[in-house]
Amino acid sequence: MEKTLDLKFTYTEKKDTRSGFGDGLLEAGRKNPNVVGLCADLIGSLKMGAFEKEFPERFFQVGIAEANMIGLAAGMTIGGKIPFTGTFANFSTGRVYDQIRQSVAYSDKNVKICASHAGLTLGEDGATHQILEDVGMMKMLPHMTVIVPCDYNQTKAATLALVDHVGPAYLRFGRPSWPVFTPADQKFEIGKAVKMIEGKDVTIFANGHLVWEAVVAEAMLREEGISAEVINIHTIKPLDEEAILNSVQKTGCAVSAEEHQVNGGLGDSIAQVLARNYPAPLEYIGVNDSFGESGTPTQLLEKYGLNAENIVKAAKKAIARK
Amino acid sequence: MENQSIDQLKKICSQVRRDCLRMVHAVQSGHPGAALGLTEYFVALFFKEMEHNNKFEMDAKGEDLFFLSNGHVSALWYSVLARTGYFSTDELGTFRKINSRLQGHPATHEGLPGIRIASGSLGQGLSVAIGAAQVKKLNQDNKLVYVMMGDGEQQEGQVWEAAMYAAHHKVDNLIAAIDYNGQQIDGPTAKVMDLKNLRAKYEAFGWEVIDIQKGNDMEAVLDGLSKAKDLTGKGKPVLILLYTEMGYGVDFMVGTHKWHGVAPNDEQLANALGQLEETLGDY
Question: pTM of the full predicted structure?
Answer without folding.
Answer: 0.97
